[in-house]
Amino acid sequence: MASTILPLELVDRCIGSPIHVVMKNEREFTGTLMGFDDYVNMVLKDVKEYEVTPNGVVETDLGQTLLNGNNIAMLIPGGRGPNA
Amino acid sequence: MASTILPLELVDRCIGSPIHVVMKNEREFTGTLMGFDDYVNMVLKDVKEYEVTPNGVVETDLGQTLLNGNNIAMLIPGGRGPNA
Amino acid sequence: MASTILPLELVDRCIGSPIHVVMKNEREFTGTLMGFDDYVNMVLKDVKEYEVTPNGVVETDLGQTLLNGNNIAMLIPGGRGPNA
Amino acid sequence: MASTILPLELVDRCIGSPIHVVMKNEREFTGTLMGFDDYVNMVLKDVKEYEVTPNGVVETDLGQTLLNGNNIAMLIPGGRGPNA
Amino acid sequence: MASTILPLELVDRCIGSPIHVVMKNEREFTGTLMGFDDYVNMVLKDVKEYEVTPNGVVETDLGQTLLNGNNIAMLIPGGRGPNA
Amino acid sequence: MASTILPLELVDRCIGSPIHVVMKNEREFTGTLMGFDDYVNMVLKDVKEYEVTPNGVVETDLGQTLLNGNNIAMLIPGGRGPNA
Amino acid sequence: MASTILPLELVDRCIGSPIHVVMKNEREFTGTLMGFDDYVNMVLKDVKEYEVTPNGVVETDLGQTLLNGNNIAMLIPGGRGPNA
């Protein structure tokens, strides 16, 4: 049987690696995970924000960013964002 | 009388099996359940996302994904998604 | 005076019986209650989903399903759904 | 000075009596209160639901019903609903 | 320096007096405060409800009413409602 | 280095002084802060409410008012409201 | 391996420095961080508010401001706002 992976274990494995984050308000981010806490508030660096607009996906570079955990809908380890 | 099944028991039985997840914001996912915690945050692999758009259901492959438990509306063990 | 019934007592009495569930996002379900926990997360089997659309109520068979308790608006023991 | 009435005291006095319940999503119900818990989840019998639609208020008989306390906006002891 | 008034002190002083309550969903009420609890769930009597509609403010008499504290946006001691 | 100011310290310093409050539902208030509790529920006096309408900002005098802390988006010590 | 940074550590490092804050209701602020608490309620000085309107981004100077932590979506240390 495939080994079980707990959610915080998965996040912990992502430290230092790229990750794709989708927020509840549909904003999306990619970046390298620098750290997180029990509420899954997350510190990312080299962050790119993707905003879906009527004219397509707008990308913005943000550098280092702290994301509020209770606003996160899902995480995709190694994900390269909606345009990938 | 049919035996009672507690919610977390049902989720636990799904580890290693396909599952269909419907979020509160109407996004839907299928994948194989790898693990979960007490808040029913869930780690899935081989994930497919289904987004209902005016032009029908758009499917996206996501690979391994962590879903935020407080955003989940319902789980269908063995479910194969909205197109099934 | 009619005897008092506590909410979780009522739910407990429904185990093994049909129940109609209305969610906060207006989705409705019928099915047989298999189990529940203190947060009234509920396991149902033989589940039918009812979605109100401009062209009337669309029914979908889901089999066994786990519903997130904090998304439930109301429960109708023995209820046979919106088309009944 | 008028005697003070605590909220749960008021609800307790309503057991066995008619009550009008308005939910946060604007759905309204009348029925006889059978019981409630500390979260003011409520069991009602002989329940009538009132849904405000463009063509006026639609009434539906539901029989016995459990209402989720965190979705309740207000209670009117002895209230006979929006058409009264 | 003006003496400090704590929120629950202010509510306590209003017992037996008229009060104007504005809910988060924009419904407004006036009435006499009969009692409240730590969650500021409130029992009012001689209650009048004010609903802002396209054709102006509609007033409805409700008698005794229990308001859910977590749905209250603000309280105006002695307030006589939006038409005052 | 500028001295650090903790949120509740800042609010405490405002007691007896004018303050501008912006709620999550975009309603705005000015008034003199009389007191507050750990949830930042706030008692204000000489309160003016500002409602942004299609025809500009409508001001209403409310006198003494209690604002629900969990509905507050931000506080501006000494602020004189949106028209200042 | 890059050193891990915990969310509250990152915020702590920002004290006395410029920071860009994006709220859940899409309002944005820049200012110098003066202090914060465990709920990430934040005290900022020299605050500028950015509101996205049909006619572009409107900037308003607010001076010292307290932001409610549970309304914050994300923080960008050293960020100079949406027009940068």
UniProtKB/TrEMBL annotation, chains A, B, C, D, E, F, G:
Record's subcellular location: Nucleus
GO MF assignments: RNA binding
Keywords on record: Acetylation, mRNA processing, mRNA splicing, Nucleus, Ribonucleoprotein, RNA-binding, Spliceosome
Keyword Membrane tagged: no
Origin superkingdom: Eukaryota
Biological process, per Gene Ontology: mRNA splicing, via spliceosome
One Pfam family linked to the record: LSM
Reported function: Plays a role in U6 snRNP assembly and function. Binds to the 3' end of U6 snRNA.
Family the entry assigns: Belongs to the snRNP Sm proteins family.
Annotated protein name in UniProt: LSM complex subunit LSM5
Originating gene: LSM5
